[in-house]
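User: Please run a holo structure prediction.
Assistant: Happy to. Please share the sequence and the ligand.
User: Here you go; the ligand is pyridoxal-5'-phosphate.
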Amino acid sequence: MIELKLAQRVGRIQPSATLALTARAKALAAEGKDVIALTAGEPDFETPDYIRDAAIDALKAKGPVDRYTPASGLPAIRKAVAHKFKRDNGLEYSPEQVMVNCGAKHSCFNLIAALIDEGDEVIIPAPYWVSYPEMVNFFGGKPVVVDTSSTGFVLTPDALKKALTPKTKLVMVNSPGNPTGAVWSREAQQALADVLRGTGVAVLSDEIYEKLVYDGEHVSFASLSDDAYSRTVTINGVAKAYAMTGWRIGYAGGPKHVIAAMGALQSHSTSNPATVSQLATLKALAEDPAELPEWKRKFIARRDVIAGGLNDIAGVNCSRPGGAFYVFPDFRGWIGKSHGDLLLKDDHVICEALLTRAHVAGVPGSEFGAPGFVRFSYAASDEEIRKAVERIAAFAKELK
Ligand SMILES: Cc1ncc(COP(=O)(O)O)c(C=O)c1O
């Protein structure tokens, strides 16, 4: 027997901690434990029927739905994506400047593959979405992590200036953000655009939570100025706003040569995203779902319950985020305390204790570059959220 040797590049990445914890919470639930999993990064609503029906009709009609499409997507969907960018974001992209991918994660992966050479630096504001540094590492780039926890989870122009070097190739912008839910204002983004002016640095603006803004407004980085437009690739998708995580469609808009490079890569890797999903997305992008205002109302109510409830717990400090469906409380006040025989020495131990002793699953902040914090998703029922807060509060009372 031989042991196959893996490529060095896979040794540089770890499996997704969020997916692993979600699986762990599900396994405990399958064993009959009453676990409340606040780990998931997906809405708990169903894909609206009119989108589902478009897919069913396409499947029944047979023909094109059974076939490949061009690797970057059907001409009709590239047009629809370009139209969406204009309608919602004020961005003028021609259909050649946009493409569809197998989820926004895949859009990010393709873009990083297209831009990053060995040793290139990528500025990643922390707390960050877990996949950004992993993807950069995979391609031999160097994540330059900039902590934003003392500036309201917003990257400041000074911090950006300090992190820039001649090797900087790309800056990640993610508003509303995962894991913090922070919404970056127009002024905050404009200040970053001003710092980048005159450099050759690209921006990946991940706008997957665009439609889930409760306070403030959504601003597309590329819409700030012609200069910002020319350096930005805007990434979005249907997963969060249309409750379509399983359909696996993301999309990107940006400079034509960058999109062409991403398209060439896609033509040799996945080929087109599933044709049936493209056809459903065509319907989805025509207008916002009628359900969206109701979903937002529910998310706001849940956010207020979970953020308010966590804030009332001794040692926990939780801000009220303006978007997405996560809260990102600071648990540093618990570090050094004990629960029975267990010393809470870091956020991993806190999450382990909350999972096994309070039966509430969250994701340790360290996974997002923010030790001492925990991410809870409030894409869960009102009842689950209320109970989860009660359990964490009861656990807190037992700390010594
Ligand atoms: C910030 C961010 N970008 C991208 C994605 C990926 O979205 P998709 O499901 O479309 O791949 C996620 C999903 O959790 C996310 O949180």
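The pocket of pyridoxal-5'-phosphate is lined by residues 41, 103-105, 129, 174, 178, 206, 208, 237, 239, 245, 250 (CB under 6 Å).
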